[in-house]
Design goal:
With 261 residues, the chain is of the alpha/beta class. It has ten helices and 13 strands. The chain has two domains: 126 residues, D-Maltodextrin-Binding Protein, domain 2 (3-Layer(aba) Sandwich); 94 residues, Periplasmic binding protein-like II (D-Maltodextrin-Binding Protein, domain 2, 3-Layer(aba) Sandwich). It has a five-stranded mixed sheet with strand order 10-9-11-8-12, with helices on both faces. A three-stranded parallel sheet has the order 5-1-6. A three-stranded antiparallel sheet has the order 2-3-4, with helices on one face.
Length: 261
């Protein structure tokens, strides 16, 4: 009886061990990451076709932490989620905000940065940043973004112009075809105000952080069946925060920590 019980216990342990191994989902040796490649300084394309930026450096560090290889492909922003669902790539790392609406169609890692949004206007502009103050104003932003959703919901009297990239919106702002542009504070500061084209323009108005529209920070997006990949990225983000690599990369690109509160 004692011998039988010990054997039975050993069999149960073996079955449970095999079940656990079968349930575990290992990461592939290589992950393909989709990004926009047109959102400096977070991600942008060099003259040789390679992608670089804060998110590229951070993602490569995360992949090194996970001991896998990551390859990069670029995708126009308005097709970034459809491209993931069509299996053109395994993950999105492209300043994609984590929102409840997006969680209905894809899964996310924990956030890897979080910054507020603001408007940029010409210096000396009489615009007041409010629903009333912007009534009738021509405002630009990138299509299929949280900025578009926020404007449509909260400032319906604005003449909203949508662009494929933020650079296109900045171009129309400098040409006088727009009165203002709304976007990420850090992206505006580094991608526009910090360039010669940004001379004569300034940030104005309050910082916008409403989770309903601007989410809970930017996260790594994956297909819903690949939550284990998102979890691996979450673990890597935590490890890079703990060992200081995250802070070093953020300091390199922004001179500050953009992880957020």
């Amino acid at each position: 009886m004692t011998k039988f019980s010990a054997t039975a216990r050993a069999g149960v342990v073996a079955v449970l061990t095999m079940a656990g191994a079968a349930g575990a989902q290992d990461l592939p040796d290589t992950l393909v990451i989709g990004t926009e490649g047109a959102y400096p300084p977070f991600n942008f394309t060099e003259s040789d076709g390679s992608v670089t930026g804060f998110e590229v450096d951070l993602a490569n560090a995360m992949c090194a932490q996970m001991e896998i290889t990551c390859e990069w492909v670029t995708q126009d922003w308005d097709g970034i989620i459809p491209g993931l669902q069509a299996q053109k790539y395994d993950a999105i790392i492209a300043s994609l905000y984590i929102t409840d609406e997006r969680r209905e169609v894809i899964a996310f890692s924990d956030k890897y940065y979080q910054v507020p949004s603001r408007f940029v206007v010409p210096e000396g502009s009489a615009l007041e940043i409010s629903a009333e103050g912007l009534s009738g104003a021509v405002v630009g932003t990138q299509r299929a973004t949280s900025f578009e959703r926020y404007m449509n919901a909260n400032m319906p009297d604005v003449d909203l112009r949508l662009y494929g990239t933020m650079d296109e919106a900045y171009l129309d702002l400098t040409s006088g075809r727009l009165d203002a542009v709304i976007g990420d504070v850090v992206a505006i500061q580094d991608g526009f105000l910090g360039t010669p084209d940004g001379t004569g323009f300034e940030l104005r108005g309050p910082e916008f952080t409403d989770p309903e529209f601007f989410g809970y920070g930017a996260g790594v997006g994956v297909r819903q069946d690949d939550q284990h990949i998102a979890d691996a990225f979450s673990d890597a983000i935590e490890a890079l925060r703990e060992n200081g690599t995250y802070q070093d990369i953020s300091e390199k690109w922004f001179g500050l920590d953009v992880y957020g509160g």
